[in-house]
Amino acid sequence: MTEDGSASASLEALRNEIDSIDGEIHRLIRRRAEVVEALGALKQANGPSLALRPGREAQVLRRLVATHTGRFPTAALLSLWRTMMAGFLRMQQPVEVCVAAPDLALWDQVRIHFGGEMPITAVASSQDALAALDQAGPRIAVLQPPAPDDCWWRLLAQGGPMVIARLPFFYRRNQNLPHAYVVALAAPEPSGDDVTWLRLAGGAAALDHLVVEGAGHAGLELSTVAAYNPTEPRTPASWLVAVSRFMAADDEALNRLKNQALANGVEVERVGCFARPIELPGSDQGRNP
C-alpha cells in the first residue's frame, strides 16, 4: 500500500471510530431520556410541582468541571449539558419562560441557558414577568438585577415567588456578561455552594443595627444587595441582603436572626437561594489528563 493509501485508510478508520462514538452517545441520550420520563412520572405521582431543579443541575455541571480533562473546551462541554438539561426539562413539563425587558445580550444568555426548544416571551417589566407566574401552566420569570427604580425583590415571599437560580451559571473570568435571576413558584434547593437572599423590613436605623450587630449574634455575615428607602415616613424601609450559604426555611441561624430582628421591630423573610456560578479561566481549552 502506498503512503497516500495508508493515510487514507487511517483517516477512514478514525472516521469510522467517530461514527461509532456518535452512535454510542446517541444511544446513551435515548437511555437518559427514558430515565427522565420515569423520573417525571414519579414526580407527578407525588403531586404537581415545577420540574426545574437548578440546585441539582448545578451539582451535575460542577461535577463535569471537576472531572473534565483534555483539550475540548470546558465551556463547550457545559453548553452541551445545558442544552440537554433544557430538552429533558421540556420532556417533563411544558415550561415557559418570561423575560423582563431583555436587551439582546440578556436574551442570548436566557436562550443559552434554557435551550432552543424552550418557549421564551419578552414582557415589558419585572412586575409583568412576576404576574405571569400566576397564569395557567408552569412558568419561570427571568429578571434583571435589582435597581433603585425596580425593586421587584419586594414582591417575593416564602411560599410565593422566590429566586431559585442566577444566570449565567458559567462564564469565563474575562467576560463581561449581563446577569439575571430566575424566579419561580418553587422552593429553592441546595447545591452545595449557594447564596441566600433575605429581605429585611423596618426602620432604617433598626435595619442598619441588625446588619452590623444583630447578624453577628446570629452567626451570620450579611452583605447588602439592594435597598428601598421610601420618602413617606410611615412606610418601612426594605433591604435585600445576601448570606453566602444555603439557608432552609427552618435554618437555626435564620431563626436566631428573626428573633433578634423582631425584638428591634424588623421583619426578616427568606426570598431566594441560588447556586453560586462557575467561573472558568479566561482561556478555556480544558485540562490535560
Description:
41% of the residues lie in helices and 21% in strands. The chain contains 7 helices and 11 strands. The protein has helices at residues 3-45, 54-67, 74-92, 104-114, 126-132, 204-217, 252-262; strands at residues 96-100, 120-123, 139-143, 162-167, 170-172, 180-184, 194-202, 223-228, 237-243, 267-275, 278-280. The strands form 3 sheets. Strands 2-1-3-6-4 form a 5-stranded mixed sheet. A hairpin with an 8-residue loop joins strand 8 (223-228) and strand 9. The two termini are 35 Å apart.
List keywords for this structure.
single chain, 289 residues, alpha/beta, Alpha-Beta Plaits, 3 domains, 5-stranded mixed beta sheet, 4-stranded antiparallel beta sheet, 11 strands
Following the backbone from N to C, one meets helices and strands in this order, namely HHHEHEHEEEEEHEEHEE
Which structural class should the secondary elements be placed in? alpha/beta
Arithmetic mean pLDDT: 89
Q: How many structural domains?
A: 3
Total number of helices: 7
Taken from the alpha-carbon principal axes, the silhouette is: elongated
Reading side by side through the largest sheet, how are the strands ordered? 2-1-3-6-4
- What is the strand tally? 11
Poorly predicted regions: none
